UniProtKB/TrEMBL annotation:
EC number: 4.2.1.46
Keyword Lyase attached: yes
Domain NAD(P)-binding: 7-322
Annotated SUPFAM superfamilies: NAD(P)-binding Rossmann-fold domains
Gene3D superfamilies per record: NAD(P)-binding Rossmann-like Domain (3.40.50.720), UDP-galactose 4-epimerase, domain 1 (3.90.25.10)
Domain of life the protein comes from: Bacteria
InterPro entries hit by this protein: dTDP_Gluc_deHydtase, NAD(P)-bd_dom, NAD(P)-bd_dom_sf
Reactions catalysed: dTDP-alpha-D-glucose = dTDP-4-dehydro-6-deoxy-alpha-D-glucose + H2O
Uppermost EC category: lyase
Family from the record: Belongs to the NAD(P)-dependent epimerase/dehydratase family. dTDP-glucose dehydratase subfamily.
UniProt keyword list: Lyase, NAD
Protein name listed in UniProt: dTDP-glucose 4,6-dehydratase
UniProt GO MF annotations: dTDP-glucose 4,6-dehydratase activity
């Protein structure tokens, strides 16, 4: 397989940093350019083991900045994996605007630039010379489908019915990515993955939040009755799915990615409490999130049967390793819990 030069956006975040490391380890001949704005969620410490590799470059930049994005593409990118996003639902309820500018307009800037540097005719002399065809992978979420009742699973052909500003911004991005394929024949794929867990996740998300609060003996906020169901997938399995789509995805196709691990939020909280030997008295039920989706469940038959991907982690093993990782890396948590995060957390849970 020819060597690739991949632009990864949002590669200093949770999933992006795991993806950058997977690709650099698995394909040492590939080059990665990681573009990240380093918002509160971006952390270069996640990448310290690869930062000196000659085939890895980091550029601090905003995906909404056309000029710099154009400049980066002009250095012969052949694939884009777009992780960059505002990703936290609670924040999208408080301040939706940045979700629209980054998640929608930022994606459109990347698409426009990919279109500019992609040549329709693969036999074009310019394309042959520079191998300069740009493949665009949009990393999306199962949340774009909305909420399920007790039965059924999300399949790729379902209509998008997002319920939060976050999921609406991701659904909008999916639509514009699809449109660039239909209108301009840009080679794209969209992946829609369920909830991820694993190392390097920012501690505003359920699993690291509960681990961190348990370790500090702080109350464990649980929305509503805690019976919201999510399908959980280890971040490494999500990254291997994106790897499969990058190399084998059929242009224009959407692939669902999930772990077949449906768990209620309260089950996750109790599992962490038990593993850490803490008391369930720490649980504090708080007013439910507005528009809170009740259940997500994802059918991954398409990626499994067509691209040969399957998850490798059992939920039990993945959670055991994840909890151990956070126990070993308390300094990592301490270093990233910025003033911004503390203020946001206090504001969100001031009702406790
Ligand atoms: P994250 O919040 O941990 O990381 C997002 C990264 O994007 C950060 O490094 C941030 O600095 C960067 N970023 C934000 N705005 C930017 C901008 N304007 N320009 C450049 N960089 C910017 O998010 P994550 O959990 O790693 O999620 C990554 C992607 O995967 C997102 O697109 C998200 O919608 C999607 N996703 C996440 C999950 C999940 O469970 N976490 C599940 C499915 C899909």
């Amino acid at each position: 397989m020819a060597s690739k030069k991949i632009l990864v956006t949002g590669g200093a975040g949770f999933i992006g940093s795991n993806f950058v490391k997977l690709i650099l380890n698995k394909y040492p001949e590939y080059k990665i350019i990681n573009v990240d704005l380093l918002t509160y969620a971006g952390n270069l410490e996640n990448l310290k083991e690869v930062c000196n590799k000659p085939n890895y470059t980091f550029i601090k930049a905003d995906i909404r900045d056309r000029e710099i994005i154009d400049h980066i593409f002009s250095r012969y990118i052949d694939s884009v994996v777009n992780f960059a996003a505002e990703s936290h639902v609670d924040r999208s309820i408080e301040e939706p605007e940045v979700f629209l500018t980054t998640n929608v307009i930022g994606t459109q800037v990347l698409l426009d630039t990919a279109k500019k540097y992609w040549k329709i005719n693969p036999n074009d002399k310019y394309c042959k010379e520079y191998k300069h065809g740009v493949k665009f992978i949009q990393v999306s979420t199962d949340e774009v489908y909305g909420s399920l009742g007790a039965e059924g699973m999300f399949v790729e052909t379902m209509p998008l019915m997002p319920n939060s500003p976050y999921s609406a911004s991701k659904a909008s991005a999916d639509m514009i990515v699809r449109a660039y394929h239909k209108t301009y024949s840009l080679p794209i794929n969209i992946t829609r993955c369920s909830n991820n867990y694993g190392p390097y996740q920012f501690p505003e998300k359920l699993i690291p939040l509960i681990i961190n609060n348990c370790l500090k003996g702080k109350e464990l906020p649980v929305y509503g009755d805690g019976m919201q169901i999510r399908d959980w997938l280890h971040v490494s399995d999500h990254c291997s799915a994106i790897d499969a789509v990058l190399h084998k995805g059929v242009d224009g196709e959407v692939y669902n990615v999930g772990g077949n691990n449906e768990k209620a939020n309260i089950e996750i909280v109790k599992l962490i409490i038990k593993t850490l030997g803490k008391s369930e008295d720490l649980i504090k039920y708080v007013k439910d999130r507005p528009g809170h989706d009740r259940r997500y469940a994802i059918d991954s038959t398409k990626i499994t049967s067509q691209l040969g991907w399957k998850p490798t982690y059992s939920f039990e093993q993945g959670m055991k390793e994840t909890i151990e990782w956070y126990l070993k890396n308390t300094d990592w948590i301490k270093n990233i819990v910025s003033g911004d995060y503390v203020n946001f957390f206090d504001k969100m849970y001031s009702r406790i």
